[in-house]
Amino acid sequence: MAKAKTLYVCQNCGASQSKWAGQCPACQEWNTLVEEQAPESAPKGLGAKKGRKIEFVGLKGAEAQPPRRTTGIAEFDRVTGGGMVPGSATLVGGDPGIGKSTLLMQVAAALSGNMRAAYVSGEEAIDQLRLRAARLGLAEAAVGLAAATSVRDIAATLEGKDAPDVVVIDSIQCMFVDSIESAPGTVSQVRTSAQELIRLAKRGGFALILVGHVTKEGTIAGPRVLEHMVDTVLYFEGDPSHQFRVLRAVKNRFGPADEIGVFEMMETGLHEVPNPSALFLSDHRDDVSGSAVFAGMEGTRPMLVEIQSLIAPSSQATPRRAVVGWDSGRLAMIMAVLEARCGVALGGTEVYLNVAGGLKISEPAADLAVAAALVSSVTGSPLPPETVVFGEVGLSGEVRAVSQTEARLKEAEKLGFTRAIVPKVRARKGKGPGRSMDKRKDATATSLTIIEIDHLADLVARFEKAGAEGRNAPVIRAVAPEQG
């Protein structure tokens, strides 16, 4: 009898090797090659057998599209683009204990009011699911519960006219296909299980939600092809020490791919936060140096968050830089611009930057708010009270305009802010004069006092003046700014 052939498959990228190695040659990750049994026969060509001709149809169908399946949870519906689409596949990832199962139990219960919803768990028993439902106050919801890991059994249950309208699989790493001789959670099992379930959802027309584990780097475990197979990829983020949770869409074929929903973890489950700006700024103080309020955009939603900075002297040869909620590389760039273009000496100090509330910011419009927090901390002069800041900073120190300025200003005005430090609107070459701030002000009908900043040195000069009036000793050299 011939010996069964084996392959070594990388659990990070899915590449296969004939021999084991400590490092994957494809993705350069260490200790990710796992031995799996090779398929019995290699795929062959089409040969001489002819296939069945497919029929092409037009873009406009004769039948109306089925309506989206809304949950009534506004934050979840916002992230998914207005509700679940029939026949779609959604992948939800997040750290252990962040609240994925809690959120999806609430979603299934909300959908069970006017449609059939099923929750299949491969990690918990039925009694454990019922305990969670009782804690959340959902014991009376008509949700079908099942504890199963065999994809063959799940497929046999979901086929037919009695199939549910929404199915939650928790989690895809626990599912297995009995025709593949490898352990559940391996690349082959995860890929094949997801493929069979997605194919079943497309054919049956029910909305499928898959729960995925994440690695220590924060990405969904398993092959990257899993994210390409589904229609929507959602990440559930948050710091376990904070009560806030953020549901972020990183891929969505049926809606915006950068939308977020904010939830608050409480004893009775996850509660949606309709106004996250007010929640993130609940403990903000205007009389503290090193603090700036940033008016950002998360998808289509304007959001105000507090950026805190602390600068302390250091006796080490390499001062420490600690960043929470922002890109450390972009912080280094802002510090270099402040020192080279504006004369703010930060090289021998320890710098700590924090985005309050556990939110993660990625847009470049936060550059000016970070610079304001740093200069405020080094001079000891707080920003003017009730002031918001946003703008992108270039390497020559210029402050560049950002998109959706009107929405940011309206959100700041709604929350009671009276001033806004924004980039100066420059004239466009070859197209006449650009929009003036007066026109922008009329367009938004805002009562904010607008302070335009053309160069980062203008912002530093304001803090230097305030520090001199307050008899502070800022660490600022008297150098002329370079306009690039």
Structural category: alpha/beta
Low-pLDDT stretches: 431-444, 471-484
Most strands sheet:
9 strands, mixed
- CATH classification, class level of the largest domain: Alpha Beta
Helix fraction?
A: 25-40%
Under the CATH scheme, which architecture of the largest domain would be assigned?
3-Layer(aba) Sandwich
First CA to last CA: what distance?
Answer: 75 Å
Which term fits the overall shape?
globular
Strand fraction equals 15-25%
CATH topology-level name of the largest domain: Rossmann fold
Q: Enumerate how many helices there are, as a single number.
A: 12
Q: In a nutshell, what does this entry contain?
A:
The protein is of the alpha/beta class and 484 residues long.
Give structural notes.
This protein has helices spanning 74-79, 100-111, 126-135, 151-158, 187-204, 225-229, 276-280, 328-342, 367-379, 405-414, 437-444, 456-469, and strands spanning 6-10, 16-17, 33-37, 89-94, 117-121, 143-147, 166-170, 207-212, 232-237, 244-252, 260-266, 269-272, 291-298, 301-313, 321-324, 349-355, 387-389, 392-393, 399-400, 419-423, 449-453. The protein contains twelve helices and 21 strands. Mean pLDDT is 85; it is low at 431-444 and 471-484. The protein is of the alpha/beta class and 484 residues long. The longest helix is centred in the middle third of the chain and has 18 residues, at 187-204. The strands form four sheets. It has a nine-stranded mixed sheet with strand order 6-5-7-8-4-9-10-11-12. It folds into three domains: 6-37; 74-274, P-loop containing nucleotide triphosphate hydrolases (Rossmann fold), CATH 3.40.50.300; 279-469, Ribosomal Protein S5, domain 2 (2-Layer Sandwich), CATH 3.30.230. Helices cover 26% and strands 24% of the residues.
